[in-house]
Each structure stands twice: as C-alpha cells, then as structure tokens.
Amino acid sequence: MDQPLAGTDARPVCHALGDLNHDRTRHLQRSHGLLPFRGDRGHTLDAQGDIVGITASAFSALSIDPALVLFCPNYASDTYPILRNSKQFAIHLLAADQQAEAYAFAGKGKDKAKGIEWHLSALGNPLLSNATAIIECELWREYDGGDHAIIVGAVKNLILPDQPATPMIYHKGKLGALPTLT
User: Fold this and answer.
1) Residue spans of the chain under pLDDT 50
2) Which of 11, 6, 136 is nearest to 67 (CA)?
3) Phi, psi (5° rounding) for residue 43?
4) Chain CA centroid to CA 132, Å
5) Any idea what the Cα angle at residue 65 is, between residues 153 and 53, rounded to 5°?
6) Beta strand 88-93 with 126-128: parallel, antiparallel or unpaired?
7) Among 53, 129, 131, 173, fewest CB within 10 Å belongs to which?
8) pLDDT of residue 90
9) Cα atoms found within 13 Å of the Cα of residue 74, Cβ hemisphere only
10) What whole-number distance in Å separates Cα of residue 173 and Cα of residue 36?
C-alpha cells in the first residue's frame, strides 16, 4: 500500500499511460509542466534575411568533446523547417527580464522579432541582446523524437556576458527568475 509522502497526507498517485488514454496528452503536458526549465530559444535567419525563432521546451548540454548541445523543436512549428534548412542557429539562454522576447518567439507568425533588439554575429546568426548566454551552432545531427525533432548542434561560439544575468525559468505555465539557491 502507498505510504503518505513525508510531512504530508498526500499519497503518490501513479497510473500507467495505457490507463489514461483519453487524458494522456493532458496528463503528459501537465507532468512536463512541473519540471522547471530555462527560457531557451533557437534563432536563425530565413531566406529573406528575417530573424525567425522557436521556443524549445527541451534543451541540454550533450558533450564537452566534441562540444555539442541539443534542443527539441516541435515538427508542427513554422520555424522548424527553416532552422533545419539553415544548418546553423543560435541558442539563447534568456535572462529573467526577457519575458517579451520569450513570448514573442513562442507564438506563431511572422515578425516575431518586431521591437526586439538584435544584431548579426560574425557567423551570420541573429543574436538577441542581454541573454545570460548565447551558444552558436552548426547542425550536427537530427533524430526523430516523436512529435519533436531532436536537433544536435556542434558548438561554434559561446558568448557569455561580462556581468552575469539572472536566468529565466519556465514552470507551471509561468516565466520568472530563477530564485537564488543557497
């Protein structure tokens, strides 16, 4: 029999996904939303030279040697084929005060960068100002990940600010600052 969680009267509730077929998507989205993640965005230029970007709910450092990172855009995203075809991109680890940028690139449509400060890097990637870090990459590999692609980027340049900024996190449908950990 399940025991209450320490310090609470709550009991863990576990269901096999097969038992939740009618609510599977909703339950998976809810459980994924409980995991805090950084405000990460992938950006590149389209064929017209306009900045395009995507919000990636999954981003991770993958390897030190060779230097690799991965992120997982949704196949249904308008930006995904542009990122894949460009063969290069910049991952922005957004600062807590960059919520406007986060929401702009989370949506659909053109002109996501309207009113957002950015410039081109020497490698030709669009760079947003004031991120906590920027990782410029070339497409190294791509794998199937269900309804998302798993894009692995070979790190070509890393930009860190002189003054560290407080990183943004996303948790339970909200953006905010990472609390100071002691």
Assistant:
1) 1-6, 8, 10-20, 32-36
2) 136
3) -135, 145
4) 14
5) 15
6) unpaired
7) 173
8) 87
9) 11
10) 10
The burial of 69, by beta-carbon neighbours within 10 Å (0-12 exposed, 13-18 middle, 19 or more buried), is given as buried
Q: Are 139 and 90 in contact (CB under 8 A)?
A: no
The full DSSP string for 90-135 is EEEE-BTT-HHHHHHHHS-SS-TTTT--EEE-TTS-EEETT-SEEE
Contacts of 80 (CB under 8 A, 6+ apart): 54, 73, 74, 149
What pLDDT shows up at residue 143?
A: 96
> 143: closest CA among 87, 81, 77, 71?
71
pTM of the predicted model as reported, rounded to 2 decimal places: 0.73
Q: How many CB atoms lie within 10 A of CB 123?
A: 13
- Structure token pair of residue 128: 């947003």
pLDDT score at 140: 96
- Residue 106's Cα: distance from chain center in Å? 10
Q: What does the pLDDT read at residue 45?
A: 63
pLDDT at res. 29: 53
How buried is 166 (Cβ within 10 angstroms: 0-12 exposed, 13-18 middle, 19+ buried)? middle
Say how far apart CA 177 and CA 165 lie, in whole Å. 10
